[in-house]
Structures are given as structure tokens and as C-alpha cells.
Design the sequence.
């Protein structure tokens, strides 16, 4: 059994080396045959035959072994994958040629637990006649598979079942060879001198620690500057909310939106003409208070971001004013259209919901029909399975009767063979002697070949040593003249002398220095231009902030009602941007650079003279 176990181990080792993505089976078999030359001819022939069969029928064996790992072999190791492939190949394709006795010896040389589990799974009649037959029929023809492979396996199933029961009786802990335990080293203690007892040290005096200072109260309080900033923020926010509420309540009548086709009424025109227009009074001088906020230094990104914000606000206000100038109307038509579209969308949603409800009912009825069909199909399959199991039971009873007859015949043959045991033993002794003589002759030939190879290697070494010594005795020239201006002449592309190489390196260094200086100048110029652009944006931001401060201060200034036919009449207060106050003559304009407000207001410019 050890002989067959080694053969199977060699086959498994070769299968582990095979990689189907890279190696081809023909080249792999050639390499394996060259690596197995040291074995005997019988062993080499057996290993190569099993290896070639496993590679040829790799797809069939993979189907069975993968299904075994999925169903019954979940706890088996993947390292035994090729072992199960070899056993499957021997049982399917070599059981008739090897004979059942030799097959039993090969199986017994392997671990019994793993082999019993796999053989019980593979020789199960339900597995052979159902999914194994279907899977193999996808690769080969069904008639060929059933006649050449499945019928022999079903015929050998009773013998294999007896082998499985025999192997299950063997204890798993039984080892094939008894190993002698190695002697454990016993440690010995060192003969060391006993240490002297240590003296008790004198305790050191405890040092006096100075009393620490208490933590100041300012550590747990906010700084005064932060508190002042918070107070200013709250005051500014409350003031801004009051101004916003006041602006929304006192918006002007001329900025109220109306439809394009609605002309102004005559009554409104008469009322405007009858109103008494007072004179325009000079606005008092404004006083601006310097804020208490600490100036904050802005970086480049903050400056550019604030400039872009002001630019967007100006563009938005211009668009709004242009729309008012063009006569933007109210949103009554848009609201009517929006109401109609919402009603239409609601109707469509209701129709879609009804459609989905009907579809749900249809799908529910279809599911009920499908469930009924599935139940009928399951009943039909169960009846077919019962018929198949009944047929298999009949076949099993017939096989058992055939096996009983076969066993009786075997017993009779064994009784006859016991009479000729001595003749068989003599033949066996002669065969063994012949094998021993052949092995001795092979070993002698191998020893002679190795001796001849050693002599040839020794002769070659002696020749090499004599040649080296002859080369050492020849005179050599120690000095060597070097011409730096001479080209070596090796035939390489771009070959040059040492002097020319030095000159080229010097020129290259000068060009690199020149390029670095030009690059440095470009960087300095770029920095200057960037700083100039940032300075311009800072100036623009400062102007915008000053203008916004003036406009915020002018919002609370009372403006009397305007006189003259060319001025529009507003309410008591008007919001006047600060940069328009400096113009000399009075006029009515819509500014091009006006920050965003919550309500549209007309602009009344006054003369300072």
C-alpha cells in the first residue's frame, strides 16, 4: 500500500504544479516525464498514465469535485482537491483495468475519512443518474456517457459500498507506523554562589514643594475685545432688521408692478397735477462715525472674493432696473397658468395612480396563477422522483442477487486456489528474485556512469588549470598611455574624446545658468503684476464699502416731496446712494452701479450749490 500511496502522492504533486492558464497539457507531460526519469519503469508508467488521464478529462473531474465541496465536503481542505480528482479518475476510467483488489489497495493507502466521504458521494445512485449524467452529457454525447462510464460505476457500486463500510470500521487515530519517541533533554541547574543579602537603604527626606499660584479667573472668561465685538454685532443686526422693515413698509408707488397693456388711469393723473409740490430743500450735512472694529488684514483670496461679490450685486441690480424700465408687469397671468398646470398635473397623477392600482391587481392575479402552476409542477416532479426511486430499488435488488451469485463463485474459486498455493508461492519467489537481479544490474550501470562522469569532469578541470597557469606565465604590459584628445573608436553613436566632452559640459552649464536667470526674472515680473492687480482690487473694495456706508446713512434722511413737472413723486423717505450726491445739477436717473435692495426705489439727485 505504501508503494501505491507514493505513486498517488507524485501524481498530486504534479497536478499542483499545473496551471491551465499558462501551461499546455502536452508540454507539461513532457516536463513531468523528464523529471520522473529516476523512478522505475512500472512506477513511471503508472504515474504518467494517471497524470495524462487527469489532464485529458479535467472538465469532467472538476464538475464532480466542485459539487462535492459544495454539498458534502464543506469541511474538507482545498489542499486535497487534486487527491479527489485522482480518485475520481481511477474510479471512472481505470477501475476495469486495475481490478477491484488493486483499487482497494490504492484507496487504503490514503486517509480513510476523506476517501470514504468522497466515495459515498460519488457512488450514490441518485447523484450518478441525475445531475452527474446531465452535466457530463453537456460535454460528451448522452449515449456514450451512459454506456461507457455510468453503467460500470453503477455495477461496481455494491463493492465500493462494502469497501466504505470496511474503511469506516478502521479508527481514524490509528497510525500506519509506530514511531519511537525521542529522548527529551533534561535541564540541570547551574551551581552558582548564593548572593549576599542587600542592606536596607536609609529613607531620604521628603522635599518641601512650594505652594502653587491659583489659576486666574480670566482663563475661564472671554476677553473684553470679544465681548465688545459681540455687542456691536447684535446692535448692527437689530438696526439692519429695523431698516429692512421700514423699507418694506414705505416702498414707493411708482415702482409697483403693473401689466404691459394697462395704461395709467386719468384720475391718478389729475390727482398728481392737483397736488401742491413744495420746494426742494437742501439736505443737511451728514456726519459719519468711525467704527470701533479692529481692522482685519485680508489675504489675496478674500480680496478677490469680496470684489467678485460686489460685482455680482451690481449686475443683479442693473438687471432688475432694466426689467422695471422695460415695463415688467404683474404675475397674474403667470399665476393663472401655473394654477391650470397644477390642476392638469394633479389629474395626470390621479390617472397614473389608478393605472398603477389596476396594474397591481393584474400582477397579483398573475402571481396567484404562477403559484398554482408551480404547485402543480412540484407535484408532477415529486411523482417522477417516486417512480425513479422505485426503479432504482428494483435495480438494486437485482444487483444484490447478482452479487450473491458472484460471491458464491468467488468462494468456490478461492477453495480451488488454496490447493495450488505452493506453486503460486514458488512463482512469486522467482519473480522477486528476477526483480532484485534487474535492480542490482541497474544500480551497477548507474555507478559506472557516475564514475565515468567524475573522471571526465576531473580531466576538464586539469586542462583548465594548465591553461590558466600558461596564461599567468606570459609577460604583460603594466604601463598604459592615455591621449585625452583621441576618440576611443568603439563604434558607438555620438562618440567623442574627453577634451570635447569637457567643453560640451561647460557650454551646457552656461546655458543652464542663463535659463535660470531668465526664469527668475519672469517670476519677479509676474509677482509685481499680481501685486498691482491686488492693490487695484483693494482700492475698488474700499470705494464700494465707503459708498455702501454713505447709502446706509442717507436712508434715514427725510426728503420732501419734489416740485416741477419732470420729477416723480415718492413717499416721505427715499434711499439715495452716496456717490450720486456729488453731482452738480438735479436730475432723475436709474444708476448703473446700484447695490441690491429689497424693494425698487427711485433716485432723486440734489444740487449742493
Sequence:
Amino acid at each position: 500500500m505504501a508503494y501505491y500511496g507514493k505513486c498517488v502522492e507524485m501524481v498530486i504533486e504534479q497536478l499542483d504544479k499545473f496551471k491551465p492558464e499558462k501551461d499546455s497539457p502536452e508540454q507539461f507531460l513532457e516536463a513531468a516525464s523528464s523529471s520522473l526519469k529516476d523512478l522505475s519503469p512500472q512506477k513511471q508508467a503508472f504515474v504518467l498514465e494517471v497524470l495524462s488521464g487527469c489532464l485529458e478529462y479535467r472538465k469532467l473531474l472538476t464538475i464532480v469535485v466542485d459539487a462535492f465541496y459544495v454539498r458534502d465536503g464543506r469541511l474538507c481542505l482545498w489542499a486535497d482537491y487534486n487527491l479527489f480528482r485522482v480518485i475520481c479518475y481511477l474510479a471512472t476510467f481505470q477501475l476495469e483495468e486495475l481490478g477491484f483488489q488493486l483499487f482497494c489497495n490504492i484507496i487504503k493507502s490514503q486517509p480513510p475519512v476523506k476517501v470514504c466521504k468522497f466515495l459515498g458521494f460519488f457512488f450514490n445512485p441518485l447523484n450518478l443518474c441525475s445531475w452527474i449524467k446531465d452535466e457530463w452529457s453537456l460535454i460528451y454525447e448522452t449515449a456514450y456517457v451512459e454506456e461507457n462510464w455510468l453503467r460500470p460505476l453503477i455495477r461496481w457500486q455494491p463493492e465500493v459500498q462494502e469497501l466504505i463500510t470496511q474503511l469506516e470500521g478502521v479508527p481514524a487515530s490509528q497510525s500506519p507506523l509506530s514511531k519511537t519517541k525521542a529522548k527529551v533533554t533534561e535541564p540541570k541547574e547551574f551551581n552558582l554562589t548564593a548572593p549576599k543579602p542587600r542592606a536596607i537603604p536609609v529613607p531620604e527626606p521628603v522635599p518641601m514643594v512650594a505652594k502653587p499660584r491659583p489659576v486666574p479667573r480670566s482663563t475661564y472668561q472671554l476677553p473684553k475685545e470679544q465681548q465688545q465685538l459681540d455687542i456691536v454685532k447684535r446692535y448692527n443686526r437689530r438696526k439692519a432688521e429695523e431698516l429692512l422693515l421700514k423699507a418694506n413698509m414705505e416702498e414707493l408707488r411708482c415702482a409697483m408692478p403693473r401689466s404691459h397693456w394697462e395704461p395709467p388711469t386719468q384720475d391718478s393723473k389729475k390727482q398728481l397735477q392737483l397736488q401742491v409740490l413744495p420746494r426742494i430743500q437742501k439736505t443737511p450735512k451728514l456726519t459719519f462715525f468711525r467704527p470701533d472694529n479692529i481692522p482685519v488684514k485680508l489675504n489675496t483670496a478674500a480680496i478677490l472674493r469680496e470684489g467678485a461679490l460686489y460685482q455680482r450685486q451690481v449686475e443683479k441690480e442693473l438687471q432688475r432696473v432694466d426689467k422695471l424700465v422695460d415695463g415688467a408687469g404683474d404675475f397674474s397671468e403667470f399665476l393663472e397658468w401655473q394654477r391650470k398646470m397644477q390642476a392638469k398635473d394633479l389629474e395626470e397623477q390621479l390617472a397614473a395612480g389608478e393605472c398603477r392600482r389596476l396594474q397591481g391587481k393584474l400582477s397579483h392575479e398573475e402571481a396567484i396563477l404562477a403559484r398554482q402552476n408551480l404547485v402543480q409542477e412540484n407535484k408532477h416532479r415529486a411523482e417522477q422522483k417516486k417512480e425513479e426511486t422505485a426503479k432504482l430499488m428494483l435495480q438494486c435488488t437485482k444487483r444484490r442477487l447478482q452479487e450473491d451469485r458472484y460471491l458464491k463463485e468467488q468462494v468456490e474459486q478461492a477453495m480451488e486456489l488454496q490447493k495450488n498455493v505452493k506453486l503460486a508461492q514458488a512463482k512469486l519467489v522467482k519473480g522477486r528474485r528476477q526483480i532484485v537481479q534487474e535492480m542490482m544490474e541497474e544500480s551497477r550501470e548507474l555507478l559506472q556512469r557516475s564514475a565515468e562522469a567524475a573522471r571526465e569532469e576531473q580531466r576538464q578541470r586539469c586542462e583548465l588549470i594548465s591553461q590558466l597557469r600558461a596564461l599567468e606565465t606570459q609577460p604583460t604590459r603594466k604601463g598604459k598611455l592615455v591621449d585625452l584628445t583621441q576618440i576611443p573608436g568603439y563604434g558607438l553613436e555620438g562618440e567623442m574624446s574627453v577634451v570635447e566632452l569637457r567643453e560640451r559640459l561647460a557650454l551646457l552649464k552656461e546655458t543652464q545658468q542663463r535659463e535660470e536667470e531668465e526664469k527668475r526674472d519672469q517670476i519677479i515680473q509676474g509677482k509685481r503684476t499680481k501685486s498691482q492687480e491686488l492693490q487695484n482690487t483693494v482700492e475698488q473694495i474700499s470705494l464700494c464699502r465707503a459708498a455702501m456706508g454713505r447709502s446706509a446713512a442717507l436712508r434715514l434722511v427725510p426728503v420732501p416731496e419734489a416740485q416741477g413737472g419732470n420729477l416723480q413723486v415718492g413717499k416721505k423717505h427715499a434711499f439715495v446712494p452716496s456717490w450720486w450726491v456729488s453731482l452738480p445739477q438735479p436730475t432723475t436717473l436709474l444708476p448703473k452701479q446700484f447695490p441690491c435692495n429689497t424693494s425698487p426705489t427711485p433716485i432723486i439727485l440734489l444740487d449742493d450749490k
Summary: The beta strands are 588-589, 603-604.
